Amino acid sequence: MPLSFRPLSRRHLLRGVGAALALPALELMGETAPPPLRFVCLFQPNGVFPPAWDLQAPTLDAELPPILRPLTPHREALTVLKNLDNTGFGHVALTTAFLTGVGVKDRRNAISLDQWIAQRTGEQTLLPSLELGTEPPRPGGDGGQPIAYANTIAWNSPSTRLSPEIIPQAAFDRLFRTRIDPAARRAAEQRLSVIDLVLDDAKTLRRQAGLADQARLDEYLESVRSVERQLERSLTAAVPENGAMPRADLVRPLAGMPQDRQAHLRLMMDLLVLALQTDSTRVVTLMTAHGFSRQSFAFLGGITSDHHGMSHHRNQPGLVSEYTRVCTWFMEQFAYLLERLKTTPEAGGTLLDHSLVLYGCGMKDGNGHVPRDLPLLLAGKACGALRPGKLYTAPPGTPLSHLHLTIAQQFGLEMTDFNGTGAERLGGLFA
Predict the structure, then answer these.
(1) What pTM, to 2 d.p., does this model score?
(2) Which of 113, 134, 226, 335 is the most buried (most CB within 10 A)?
(3) Are the beta carbons of 94 and 382 closer than 8 angstroms?
(4) What is the span of the domain harbouring residue 312?
(5) What is the CATH number of the domain that holds 39?
(6) Residue 24 resides in a domain
(7) Is residue 20 part of a domain?
(8) How far is CA 342 from CA 47, 61, 339, 378, 381, in A?
């Protein structure tokens, strides 16, 4: 770096007409501060088949059970949690309690863990938090509460839920495009690449950068363009005349929704990684599906039940087999995200090293909406505070809010309770 060069701000943006692109960490920024800690939460609906999930050993060294087997390449980054219980009954209550420890009652909830963290970290990033998903709200009721409430786990007040962005293009635009003038709108309508829009600014920055920064910048810009190309390939223009969300097994999805379910979810995961890589936000939630999801998985072959239907398996071998296969598919997608995070370098480590990723369901077994001993995983090292590669066993009957409090304190929140639940810190989880 030239002695006369003024260090670049960590919040510097590459700008162009209609676009503003945040940057990954570069040597040009001249910063010695450690990378920030990020919080990511992925929610999977409808529970799991317990015998295909539960570990039979206190470590992760032995062969993993069937549902967890896709995570074998990442076992050194995992912490499996046991004996944490949710509160409430039914899909709406158990989904809405997943990050609040309370759940919706009389249409009111509490502030979710992600939003507590966002209140602390949000002023340092472009977006306080990012909420992503793959399914819209659904009509109907569940135990007297609207099913629509189960479309999210993020609440920024007791009466305000944050619905996830389910259209990949809209999520991409939120991160990288601006719509502040007619020229910006024309650029978006013409589907000009964000990279093309900021190219002049990028070239100027590249001339100032050393070889390592040039390589990192080139790699990053190509990753953004790769997501754009995936978006272009995945979009469909079909719109139902009544505007209702169609059944995936009968008609094509809404305009702007990828037709391929795996491509859709992985696009959202790619956007999640870009958001963290550029420090656009440090808090992301991703609903892998609606909390009362009835998605068809016929595309996996040999599956005839919808996701919710197979979760009420009544121990029938055919339904158990379908249920286990779908849960395993979700783990395959999670493995994709872990690979992306693990192969994104940052400050002598990786994005996964500097993140705390929570994955889980609001119920254990969908057959009976069992709220006890939830299927939960942590991934990453939380900037060295978490020593993964093990099973963490809490005392039987430990409330899930104990985990909420423990994570909140890890992010520097000075709490002695969590949302009035009487929560206590989980001893020995973090260093």
Answers:
(1) 0.82
(2) 113
(3) no
(4) 34-166+257-410
(5) 3.40.720.10
(6) no
(7) no
(8) 26, 20, 5, 14, 11
